[in-house]
Amino acid sequence: MSDAASPAQVSPEADIVSALGARSIVLVGMMGVGKSTIGRRMAIRLKLPFVDADTEIEAAAGMTIPEIFERHGEQHFRDGEARVIARLLDGGPAVLATGGGAFMREETRNRIASKAVSIWLRADHDVIMRRVRRRADRPLLQTADPEGTVTRLLTEREPIYGKADLTIASRDVPHDRIVDECIETLHAHLCGQAAASETPADVASAVQ
Ligand code: S3P
Which atom of ligand 1 is the closest one to the Cα of 98? Predict the structure, then answer.
């Protein structure tokens, strides 16, 4: 009986980690959707390292992102971003939060597709605006009309973010609820229905 009951005791988190192997979980989506906050919490749940691509880019460059944009321009930042993400993907498994523009580059998307499972944290315009107003360190939003800039970026980017393996709605609910949804969705994606259907009722009928 204890043998029959044991599969139900394997946690979804452990299932996910074993299904990932060396692959990482990569969070993509617009500025302000909570990629770093959700990613950090998800990494704790999965007992995986958390890496923030923006922080790694700043460390590699020895300057902040606004400084990189100011001194070298966006193209230079994007090239560095692609290199840093490629390196981080080679060091998996980890939970990796990417900057909002990273997934726009096809080469980076292809790398993510082969070395990770991607989750688009999707939030609507109002949620994004409320959150990005709290910080002034995003060079792309230092415009006369940040709302219009967010609208334009969303129009350009959402079809591309939609190429991620999974989509989770980021909204104003407790972070842990979003993390729970990420874990459930990852589990269904990576471990399929068999694992998802191992309910106590199934186990009970299996041991009868
Ligand atoms: C950017 C998003 C930022 C940062 C840079 C550019 C973007 O990261 O990489 O300012 O193009 O959307 P967050 O999404 O973590 O704010």
Answer: 15
